[in-house]
Structure formats: C-alpha cells, structure tokens
Amino acid sequence: MNWKDPSGRNLLVMGGNKPTTMQRHPILTWYAEKFLEHLSKPAARLMVIGYGFRDNHINQMICQGWRKSNQTMSMFIVHPDGRGDLEEGKPYV
User: Fold this and answer.
1) What is the pLDDT of residues 46-87, one digit of tens each?
2) Angle between helical axes of 56-68 and 26-39 (0-180°, round to 10)
3) Which of 29, 69, 86, 87 is close enough to 73 for a disulfide, judged by CB 3.0 to 4.6 Å?
4) How many other CB atoms are found less than 10 A from the CB of residue 3?
C-alpha cells in the first residue's frame, strides 16, 4: 500500500487502536461513513473476502448497517468454513 498522509507518512492502519488512528485522517473517516451509508441502504449486499471479523469497529458498522437497513442487508462470506467462521465461541466473535 502506498497511501501517504499530508505529512508523507504511510496511511495504512495496522495494529491496535485503529479507530483512534483512523479518526486523525479525514479520508479514513469519510471511507467509514460511506461504508456505513451503503450498508444501511435497503437490501444492501456485502461480500466479505478475507476478513476474519477481528476488528470490532468494522463488526459494529456491519451490525449497525444491518439494523439501519431494517435487517434487509445480505452478507456473503467467502471463506473455507462459510458461516462457520462466525460460530459462537470463537475468540473474535
């Protein structure tokens, strides 16, 4: 990833405390707002590829979008375990 912030530092957010880091960058805040906006539309569809559901701030947006869409949002998970990736008892659910 070669995104840079206005000061020339890398803009890829990794590690802990991502929401705080993301709030310091208007473009990342805007992306999050757009993500939630689109998830909140009636009958929105989200295809999830390669995401392990370990980022609580993303999981919250997915749930919030589902609620705001009157529970009409569909999610398609591309994973060897399918929905099994969301099983209760996994450390990241």
Assistant:
1) 999 988 888 889 999 999 999 999 999 999 988 887 666 666
2) 40
3) 69
4) 12
pTM value > 0.85: no
Residue 45 φ/ψ, nearest 5 degrees: -125, 130
Nearest-angstrom CA–CA distance, 80 and 13: 26
Contacts of 68 (CB under 8 A, 6+ apart): 36, 39, 40
Please give the angle made by the CA atoms of 41, 37 and 45, to the nearest 5 degrees: 45
Strands (E), 1-93: 45-49, 74-78
Q: Are 76 and 45 in contact (CB under 8 A)?
A: yes
- What are the CA-CA distances from residue 11 to residues 1, 2, 18 (Å)? 8, 8, 12
In the three-class reduction of DSSP (H, G, I as helix; E, B as strand; rest coil), residue 11 is classed as: coil
Determine the Cα–Cα distance for residues 1 and 9; give it in Å rounded to an integer.
Answer: 12
